[in-house]
Each structure stands twice: as structure tokens, then as C-alpha cells.
Amino acid sequence: MTLRRSRTALFSLALVAGFSVAPHYQSDHWSTATAQAAEEKIGPKVTSFFLANGMQVVVIPDHRAPVVTHMVWYRAGSADEPPGKSGIAHYLEHLMFKGTKTTANGEFSSRVAAIGGQENAFTSTDYTGYFQRITPDVLAEMMALEADRMENLVLTDELIIPERDVVQEERNARTENNPGSLLREAMVAALYQNHPYGIPIIGWQHEVNSLNKDDAIAFYDKFYTPNNAILVVAGDVELDVVKDLAEKTYGKVARRAEPGKRMRPSEPPPRAARRVEMEDARVRTPSFQRLYLVPSYNTAEDGEAEAFEILGELLGGGSTSRLYKSLVIDQKIATSGGSWYQGGSLDDTIFGFYGAPGQDTTLADVEAAIDKEIAKLLASGVTEKEVERTKNRLIKQAVFSQDSQSTLARIYGGSLSLGATIEDIESWPKRIRAVTPEAVNAVARKYLKKKRSVTGYLSPEKKQG
Amino acid sequence: MTLRRSRTALFSLALVAGFSVAPHYQSDHWSTATAQAAEEKIGPKVTSFFLANGMQVVVIPDHRAPVVTHMVWYRAGSADEPPGKSGIAHYLEHLMFKGTKTTANGEFSSRVAAIGGQENAFTSTDYTGYFQRITPDVLAEMMALEADRMENLVLTDELIIPERDVVQEERNARTENNPGSLLREAMVAALYQNHPYGIPIIGWQHEVNSLNKDDAIAFYDKFYTPNNAILVVAGDVELDVVKDLAEKTYGKVARRAEPGKRMRPSEPPPRAARRVEMEDARVRTPSFQRLYLVPSYNTAEDGEAEAFEILGELLGGGSTSRLYKSLVIDQKIATSGGSWYQGGSLDDTIFGFYGAPGQDTTLADVEAAIDKEIAKLLASGVTEKEVERTKNRLIKQAVFSQDSQSTLARIYGGSLSLGATIEDIESWPKRIRAVTPEAVNAVARKYLKKKRSVTGYLSPEKKQG
């Protein structure tokens, strides 16, 4: 059960095709590609419909091989947790494998394995997803199993308390033993002054320690209702078959709640630049990060998110980017350097910079060099040529990403979970093509302000004052 | 209706007797004295009892003049607000003057004025209070009026929407037009990563904008119930009279809710030093602040809060303190400098430092000088003599503060709202006397760690990157 510590970048492609060579701030961030059927004419015909109980179903045909990707997405993530219950979304994701009225603890996974399937699950700030890769002949059984745990989960203290230790071990491995993750937690907590995105997806350790059955059941009953779920089936299967099977399985699950529109506390206008400085004995190479609070695809004005997508790539996506060329190749101030935009989130999100000093340079040198590139950008802007090149690169990555059935399924599930429509996804290349250099300059000038930012330094331990 | 932007320092005395000459970080912070009857033998005999509906009553005799201080405290403040509803505690405090089933809008205040009373109200993170200074002959009427609005508040949109503008104007005057307050908001938001103390008492402006009648009534119904209230009557009145009047007024108010134990999301262990840098065109003199997350009287282990009380005073309370002598008098690096402990809060609180550079020095100079004093403290500790002198000073201030009837009433009301007992308040001088230099050194070494801190710089505006 993979925890997704970062939010899905709704339409960002940088990492999907293995493009990004520079170490990325959020290494497990899975940016997702889009179907750009409209422009590149290679995308599959995606169909979406709703069951009577409100569950959305998306079917993505792919007949290249006898494989099906089956996913259920819930529109609920860590940012939907009640105060003081951080980690419950992710803990519940683990508990979904603990058995139902008719299946035993672990039986879900053993049956998936028995039918030759592969499975995983993930929790983000805005959604929780469960997926399996199976052969088409067992889709009916797979859907019955997944629909069963949507309404029949049975939790007992005997089963779930040990799983809390598993979750804590996961936190230890990913966060407590990883200074970079600890710094990221502290930076994100400093960036978000009011919004729950400031709370880590896996939860604060001390709060996870006291999560219990009632907390899990309350979250399950509130959010794991079919009208809050999206089924995505991609692969070697016909629409009619999926429709029929979905009605016979998920269609039988009663609505248990009306989660309604998701309203989280929003951010006040940022007033002051913040810095987070962490020293840790386990750090070998220092690293620099800068996060800016910026709009997401869901909160941006028209075209702003697309402009950020281009800005992130142009400025810092890979070894041909401005930052890499300037800091790493030309000036040799840094051994890595880049920028990224995490556009896929329900609420305001992050535009980030990163860099690591070399043997003879410091974090302050890297910061100054990045600030100089930002100042240059704000003063002189981007060129038509750079923007065109970046558009081509982004769209090419989207084409590549279509090759992966599970990536496509993730794109659709993630985007729809965040309120996008099929049309939004399909029109992405067109919207990227429409971005002008002026639009890129405008978002940079509007949002890359120090007072909207948190700067982070991670250093080997020195003596503390 | 005064907004208390800072929490009451439960037993801290530094400001009560007008002692502190240096500009204080939180200028409207009203630190409160304690009754130290046990030691100094001058305190009044304070009585406390409960009405049948669970309301606590505290009577503090003071027969020097025909004056009575009448206060009602609710154990509910901004940290008890639901997510996204910041400011509702303070907004409700304003709305409590809007009329009841039997009184018109503004009638409460006009009747208090008609009986020759003075009144005010205040909201903190942990409590909300209403008080009047009256003559003894009108106490019955005063109690009837206050008891009436405990259960009979009537709100209409016509009356309350304009009051929201009043609250916003208050925020404009206190915060938006005050760069120091904006910096404080940002620093406190950065200090608290999970706990609602990170949210300003007056509320985030954008959230206050959408508060409505339902939000106010929900908060009122949940918290303004007699079993969540404390009545404090100080002054020229006999216990039996208060008891009789309280039973006839507040005693008739039915319990409407069971707020139970207050459980707020708590802080994760701090991992990284944070900095907040604000530039603002309105700033004339730069200023430096440092906040450390430390235990309060309510969360500290035995004796730690008392040790912090001494540390704050010894290090930075006024012109005889270490910091003032070193930074202002000897080195002439700063024009002000000091430290403070805000011990009175339900959950973990703040130990703070402040300083302002002179004509020829910078914020970095002030910070370095304060850091040097902290390093010296951690390395060499405090002396027996300094600690004794500080104890005497603190206890003397407590004696002075007893002279004010309303201060005494505030001490009792505030402390009891935060979970203290009468005995806790009365034993404070004894507990201060018991603090050893080792205990002071121990809390300094345990808590004055950079990773527990937020450092703030407020500067005149320069060009932003």
C-alpha cells in the first residue's frame, strides 16, 4: 500500500516519461500525463457515465494486450480529515484490506493474487485510490470484491491495532528516518498557515498513535459511499461489459452519506517570507528548496495553471532548462537545480525550486543563483522560442505517457477526483498550445513573490544555539 | 469590546504593575498577577462553589470601597472554533450585545450605563469574558441581565451583518494597518504547525467575511451553557448575598450542552528552526522577535512553568534584566531588548525575545547579541543571587497587583478558565519561592533550542525578489 506523500499533479508530465533527470524535491510525486486526443489524435475514446447510486464510471479502451486496469477512487484524502485525526485517510486505506462481512483479514489480497492480479493503493491530500491489474476474464470477480469492501468493511481492535504499528513503521521509514522528508513536512507546514495541506498525508506521528476504530469507521462512513467514488476501467474490455458488470456490483451498493462539496479552510493572503532551517546528523549533502503558494488547476484563473506548467518545465525541468544550464553547467554552483509545478490539487498548491551545492559552494550560493534567475525571469521574461520548445516537450511527454494503460487510468481517476471533466483532460494539449509568453511572464510576476514563499535549508548538524 | 489578541499569562506579573518599561512584543498582552495569600498574608479569602447547573461561582471580598466587579467567563475561545470559522468566538462576543428575547439591541449596554456601570468584554484563545464594574446595590440587576443573555440571545441578519463590518474594521485597525501585528500573525502561524493557536484570535480576514448567524448560534449553543461558565464577583459584597443572587439568576439557566474536555490538535515535535521576514513600507524602525514553543502552566511538568516565569523576568523583564543591560546599556547594539513568558494557556505556549536595533546596528546584530546571551545562559546558567532577586521582584509585583479589584478578578477568572484551582492560584508564591537556579537552567537547556523557534524580522520595504 503505497502512500502518496505528494499530491498528484493533475496534468503535469515532467516525470511520467522518466524525463526528469535532476533529483526532484518530491521524489515519489507522480505527475500524470493527459490524454491529448484532441490534438495528437492518438488518444483512446474515453467514456464516462453514472450509476443510479451516483458512482461515476470511466472506461478507457486499450486492446493491445489482454490486460485490464481496475481502479476505484474516493474523493477523500488527508485534507478531509477532522482536526486532530491526521493520518486517518491513509490508515483507513490500510484497513481496507482487513476483511468484510464475508471475507477474512487478508483475503482480498490473496484472492487478487489467486486470480493473477497485481494491486496497490494510495492516499493523497485529495483522494484515496485502490487499483489492480488483472486479466479481463476475472474483472467480474474483481469488481465484486472491490464493491464488497465499499460497504461491508468489518474492523475489530484485534485486527487494526497492529496495523497502526505498520503505519507508524511506514512513517518511520519514509519520514522520521529521512531528514529531507522532515524538512519538507516543516516547510509545507510553514507554507500553509490555515489550510490542512499543511498537515502531512501520513499524519503527525503523535496523532496517528491514537487513531482508533471509531475514527476509521467515521471516515469510511462519511466518504466511502458510491456517490463519492469513481470507477476507472482501462484495458481490453468493452464498454457494454463494464456497464453491465458495474451495475451488478457497484450499482448494488447503497448511498450511505452525502459528503457534498469539499470545503477546507483556505489560506489568508501571504504576508511574509518564511525560512525553515534544519540541521541533521544524517545529512550528507546539503540541499536547498523554495516553495511558493500558487493556484492549482482547480483554483487558477483561466490559463494560469497551464502557464505555470510551462514555467516549471522551461525554468527547471531537466537538463535543458534555464536553471540546470545556468547553475550546474555554466556557473558550476550547484550539482542539481530545477523547478516544478504541482498543479493537481483541489486547493492552492506549490511551485517549487530546488538545488544542491557542490564541494566548493554553499546553500547561500545556490539560493543567490536561483534568486538571480528568478529576478532575470521577472525582469526580462521568457522568449517565444523557449515557450514553443517547452510546449512541444510537454505534449510529447503526454504522448509517451499514453502508452501506459495504468498511467492513463491514473490521469483520469486523479483528475476526475479533483473536479475536472473528461473534456478538461482532453482539451489540455489545446490549452497548453494556447499559452503565450506574456501569460507565463504574468503568472511569474503575480505569484513568484517572496512573501508567498518558504525557503528551506537542509544541512549536516552543527552545534545548536 | 476589547479583543485580547494575546493569551492571558496565567500567573505572570511582569506587566501588571506597569513594571515593564521596554516595548513588549505583545503590547496588549495583559499578564496577570496571582493572589499570594499563602506567603504574603495580605490576600483576601476567596470562596468558590458550584450552582446546581454546574456553573462555578467565585467570590473575592474587597470592602475598601462600594464597588463590585462582576465577570462571567466562558471556557471557550478562538482555539475552540471549528475549522474554517476563525473569528467566530470574537464575533459572538460582539453579538452578545445585540439583544435577547426580552431586551433590544444595545439595551444591555444602555442599562449598564443607566445603573452607573462600566463594562467591557474580551476574547482570548482559551476563554471569552464579560465584565462590569458597578455599585453593590445594582448587582442583582446586573446578574439578571448577564444571565439573560447566557440563554436568550436573539440574532437576526439585519442586526448582525453590520456588526461583522465592525469586527472587520477592528481587524483593519489592529492588524491590517499594523505591520508588527501582521508579522506576529505570520510568526505564530509558523510556530504552531498543527494546533489552532496558529490562527489569530480575531480570525483570518477572508474567513471572518463569511461568518454568519448559524455559525454564531452554533458556537453559542455549544459553549455558552452555565456548566461551561465561571462567575467571578469581587468587591464590596457578602458571600451569602452573592450565593443567593446567583441562584436566583444564573441558577435558573438550564444546561444546554456538555462541552466536555477541550481537546485541540496538538503540536508535533518541532524539527526545524523557522524564520519569517516581513518588509513593509509603513515600518519606520526595524524589529526583531524570536518565539520558542514551550509548555504552559497547564502542560508543563511540575515547576517548569514557574522556572520559565523566573527566566523570562531575569533574562529580559525590564531595565535591570540581563538582556537590557547587555544589549541596550553596555553594548549599545539595541534600543530595546527583552524576553517574556506567556504561561497562561491551556496548551503549549510561547517564550519570546524581542529587540530593536539602533541607528548604526542591524537586525542581524541584535539577533547575534541575543543569541550570544542565550548561549551564555545555556553554558553558564543563572546564579542563586539573580534568581532570588527575580523571585522577590515577581512576588512584589503580585502584591502590587492585589491592590486592583478588577485585576484580582481577572486572575481568578482567567486561571480557573484554564483549568487551575483556587489552590493553584494561592500556592503560586510558594511555588515561585521553590524554584532553584538548577530548575531555571534545566528549562532553558531543554526548551531554548533553535528547532523549537521562529525568528522574525520586520523591516522597512526594499525591492522584492
What do these coordinates show?
The structure is a homodimer of 465-residue chains. With 465 residues, chain A is an alpha+beta fold. The first copy, chain A, folds into two domains: 37-252, Cytochrome Bc1 Complex, Chain A, domain 1 (2-Layer Sandwich); 274-460, Metalloenzyme, LuxS/M16 peptidase-like (Cytochrome Bc1 Complex, Chain A, domain 1), CATH 3.30.830.10. The first copy, chain A, has helices spanning 37-40, 88-95, 107-114, 139-151, 157-176, 179-191, 205-208, 213-223, 239-248, 304-316, 322-330, 363-380, 384-401, 405-417, 422-426, 428-433, 437-447; strands spanning 47-50, 56-61, 68-74, 118-123, 128-134, 229-235, 273-280, 287-294, 334-341, 349-357, 453-460. The interface between A and B is large, with 42 and 42 residues. Strand 7 (273-280) of chain A pairs antiparallel with strand 7 of chain B.
Features:
homodimer, 465 residues, alpha+beta, Cytochrome Bc1 Complex, Chain A, domain 1, 2 domains, six-stranded mixed β-sheet, five-stranded mixed β-sheet, 17 helices, 40% helix, 17% strand
Q: Report the CATH topology name of the largest domain in chain A.
A: Cytochrome Bc1 Complex, Chain A, domain 1
Oligomer: homodimer
Largest interface: A-B, 42 and 42 residues
CATH class of the largest domain in chain A: Alpha Beta
**Distance N terminus to C terminus of chain A?**
41 Å
Q: Count the domains of chain A.
A: 2
Q: Tell me, what's the shape of chain A?
A: globular
Beta-strand segment tally of chain A: 11
Which percent band covers the strand fraction of chain A? 15-25%
What is the count of helical runs of chain A?
A: 17
CATH architecture of the largest domain in chain A: 2-Layer Sandwich
Helix content of chain A: 25-40%
Average pLDDT over all residues of chain A: 90
Structural class of chain A: alpha+beta
Q: For the report, how would you describe the main beta sheet of chain A?
A: 6 strands, mixed
- The CATH superfamily of the largest domain in chain A is known as Metalloenzyme, LuxS/M16 peptidase-like
